[in-house]
TrEMBL record, chains A, B:
PANTHER family: GLUTAMATE 5-KINASE, ISOPENTENYL PHOSPHATE KINASE
Name under which the protein is recorded: Isopentenyl phosphate kinase
GO terms of molecular function: ATP binding; isopentenyl phosphate kinase activity; kinase activity
Catalytic activity: isopentenyl phosphate + ATP = isopentenyl diphosphate + ADP
GO cellular component term, pick one: cytosol
UniProt binding sites for substrate: A53, H58, G159
Domain Aspartate/glutamate/uridylate kinase: from-to ranges: 6-248
Enzyme class: transferase
Transferase recorded as keyword: yes
């Protein structure tokens, strides 16, 4: 399996106006496409892009209870799944089209069909299509989707969960979450005094320093940031620290350097890395330096 | 493997204005969706829909020579493949959305990734996703697409070729091609005196009566009708006659009955079936009755 340079997550909050149904942020789409084009030009074009749904699919999925599914009420779930997929694939088409218009060899690959779950746990991941596309010189563009679930008819497969699987399969040099804020804050970022956390040390058991971050993340109503952070932690621990995870702002000058080099300077974003047992103290210190 | 009620091919000529780039015929989209909804209501909803590209993708694919591909010139092919896929998936989204808006549990499934070719011959068919969707009560909606080819980088996988594979895998009761004309004519349908051929007898060796149909099909500039006819012949012979193929007009009252019962009356369309050795003469006679 060929390794990827980078797995990029384009956050749904960054790409869309979250409160406005099916409303994409054109500037964010252009920024994302321009960024990937620069990565290609710099010879780091072995990327996989995964984007969230934001205000696409969210309303339909919620209205039909797709996340919890049901072993019996499949009629309503089917309708919900179809409506949700129409919406999320619309955004996937917009993202992919913008990339292609910028000269990026992007191909949209929708998880439905190739990915499956059982009780919300992934039982089948559509890796072959992604691997083949990468090896042929393309940049696969996946998205959070609804998929078939053998226990509850269907489930939501989030972009973050996809990222975690891709990290295992493609051993990227780094995973970069591109969001609508600069990174992870010590409290909701719109709270006075909120401070960007420059780095988070992940222990081998999955606990993190500073630990406060695991609990209080009330500023994300969809639970997305909690899942994002857990995903980031899982990637760092499962790769035994070989895959650092960076979180920074999509529409920024920082994003390109983060993707190309993995470098984030103080105040530019949040980096998660595995704590080496010998240097526990210094890592914690740097975690609060921002 | 569960059998399907019907495999439906929505012709690109029927769905789009062929000469106008990326121009869908809204009436045709609505007709197709209304038809599938009626099939579902009649308890015959185990359908697979495959549509052509028409004026979506055609121009981009031609400009970049995607059909013949190349073992070396992959940069231009990649660009062409991406542009073509943006276009054909746009139409797939429109078709699927129209179906879902009509209450049909339709899911778009794009061949790229799951289907592959070598020297234009299919080496991998994405059957599992279609089977799983059918079994979960969905109607998969596939389309002609560009796919990766291990010898010439990429190739065009036509909707007709997909149909042939699906017929083998899902043993439908019938395959129905829905087009912009009533069926197959004895000469170009816009020629004075052109006569609709009601039925075509297919011999076990693939030859047909009336035999004139195999050669002169100059009225289809893309070669689509020749391929369509060959596909139809292959389906009839490979299934040993158990799968009849019907060709009729999408926007007609005939289409529903053809899909539900396999019946086409004189002048309503063209039906292909396997010639039984004992009744050769009568089959040929009925072939010219229209």
């Amino acid at each position: 399996m060929a390794a990827a340079d980078c797995v990029l997550k384009l956050g749904g909050s960054a790409l869309t106006h979250k409160g406005r149904r099916e409303s994409a942020r054109d500037g964010a789409l252009r920024s994302a496409a321009g960024l990937v084009r620069e990565l290609c030009a710099a010879g780091a074009g072995r990327c996989i892009v995964v984007h969230g749904a934001g205000s696409f699919g969210h309303f339909q999925a919620k209205a039909h209870g797709l996340a919890s599914g049901s072993p019996t009420n499949s009629e309503s779930l089917r309708q919900g799944l179809c409506l949700t997929r129409i919406s999320v694939t619309k955004l996937n088409h917009m993202v992919t089209e913008q990339l292609v218009m910028c000269g990026v060899p992007a191909v949209g690959i929708s998880p439905f069909g190739a990915w499956r779950t059982a009780g919300r746990k992934i039982t089948q991941a559509g890796i072959a299509a992604i691997r083949d596309s990468l090896e042929a010189g393309y940049i696969p563009v996946l998205h959070g989707d609804c998929v078939l679930d053998s226990e509850q008819h269907c489930s939501i497969l989030s972009g973050d969960t996809i990222i975690e699987v891709l990290s295992r399969e493609f051993s990227p040099k780094r995973v970069v979450f591109l969001t609508d804020v600069d990174g992870i804050y010590d409290r909701p970022p719109d709270t006075p005094g909120a401070t960007l956390v420059d780095s988070i040390a992940v222990n081998a058991d999955g606990s993190i320093d500073p630990p406060v971050l695991t609990s209080a993340l009330p500023h994300d109503v969809t639970g997305g940031l909690a899942l994002k952070l857990q995903t980031a932690i899982n990637i760092v621990t499962q790769s035994n620290g070989s895959i650092p995870v960076l979180i920074c702002k999509l529409e920024s000058e920082v994003a390109k350097r983060a993707c190309l080099t993995g470098e984030l300077r103080t105040g530019e974003g949040t980096k998660l890395f595995l704590r080496q047992t010998e240097e526990t103290t210094s890592v914690i210190a740097s975690g609060w330096a921002g």
